[in-house]
């Protein structure tokens, strides 16, 4: 059985392990979530679960914060990047549909 979700995207890492991997405190990680920079899933018991991609993202956020970038600016930059990626996917889909390319 083949899973379509990459191992990097599976939300399996607890906040404690995330703290150990990144060197950030649990409070810092929760703060970034509150500022809508990070979006963990929740287990049935309500525990946060993160992915390896979230680890990378959190390190990028921490580095930007160290450089003096405000959380608002980080969020704006991420939103702009996500919109651009969505636009590119839509254009690619339209081109593929126009030329009958299927994946």
TrEMBL record:
The keyword Transcription regulation applies. GO terms for molecular function: DNA binding; DNA-binding transcription factor activity. SUPFAM superfamilies: Putative DNA-binding domain. Residues 12-61 form the HTH merR-type domain. Pfam families: MerR_1. Keywords: DNA-binding, Repressor, Transcription, Transcription regulation. This is MerR family transcriptional regulator. The lineage of its organism: Bacteria, Bacillati, Bacillota, Bacilli, Bacillales.
